[in-house]
Design brief:
The protein is α/β, with parallel strands linked by helices. It has helices at 5-24, 39-46, 98-104, 148-154, 193-198; strands spanning 26-31, 34-38, 54-57, 63-72, 78-89, 93-95, 110-111, 120-125, 130-140, 143-146, 161-166, 172-181, 188-192, 206-209. The strands form 2 sheets. A 6-stranded mixed barrel has the order 1-13-10-12-11-14.
């Protein structure tokens, strides 16, 4: 059966992006503050049995949802309209930038996603209820998601640490960047808005992994 137009376009775009990666490096994705929710906390915030509404597909089965919550710190400082990402996880997690912490008056650690033990406390306010997390608020570390095929090309394995060079109007280097390798990943470096602004890059720009 011949390919339909949509399949041809998707394949062509993928080939173009792959060629660009090979010549320019790793694509960048800039992550704004966001929240991951457990099923229990989703029920509390939005109502029993509530299902998130996908807004934008991310990598793998992940997506940005239509739903947002308000963050409230122990000192009662708040940030409204914080996006929820789906699907649900085993534990709720809040990811903010360092700039956000000044507004919230909190001191979360820099951690890999999922490493929330002993992290900062934060409250979440939704349309149907509130949740207080004794721990769960972090500043995400700089990291690269990578497919197994690309990891093999780079000679990298899961949880390796690399250095990255940014060529922009504010050229710089990021050190100790964690690499995560998984079948359902797209190859992409994730940084927060503070890092992106500091080195004048945006989603869709490219960076290079320095030789190990």
């Amino acid at each position: 059966m011949s390919e339909n137009l949509q399949d041809v376009i998707a394949r062509t775009v993928a080939e173009i992006l792959k060629e660009k990666e090979q010549s320019e490096g790793i694509r960048v994705g800039v992550s704004a503050r966001h929240v991951h929710l457990s099923r229990e906390d989703l029920n509390t915030l939005f109502g029993e049995g509530y299902e998130l509404t996908p807004k934008k597909k991310l990598m793998g089965d992940q997506y940005a949802a239509e739903e947002c919550v308000t963050l409230v710190s122990p000192s009662l400082r708040s940030i409204e309209g914080v996006r929820v990402l789906g699907p649900v996880r085993s534990h709720s997690q809040v990811e903010v930038s360092r700039t956000d912490t000044f507004k919230l008056k909190i001191s979360p650690p820099v951690r890999p996603s999922g490493d929330i033990k002993g992290s900062a406390a934060i409250a979440l306010v939704g349309p149907k209820g509130n949740v207080f997390l004794n721990e769960g608020c972090i500043i995400a570390n700089r990291h690269i998601h990578m497919t197994p095929a690309d990891a093999k090309e780079y000679g990298i394995k899961d949880n390796d640490i690399v250095d990255v060079e940014i060529k922009s109007s504010k050229p710089t280097r990021f050190y100790n960047v964690q690499v995560r390798v998984r079948e359902d990943f797209d190859t992409e470096m994730h940084i927060d808005t503070d890092d992106a602004n500091a080195c004048a890059i945006k989603t869709g720009d490219y960076v290079k992994i320095l030789d190990k």
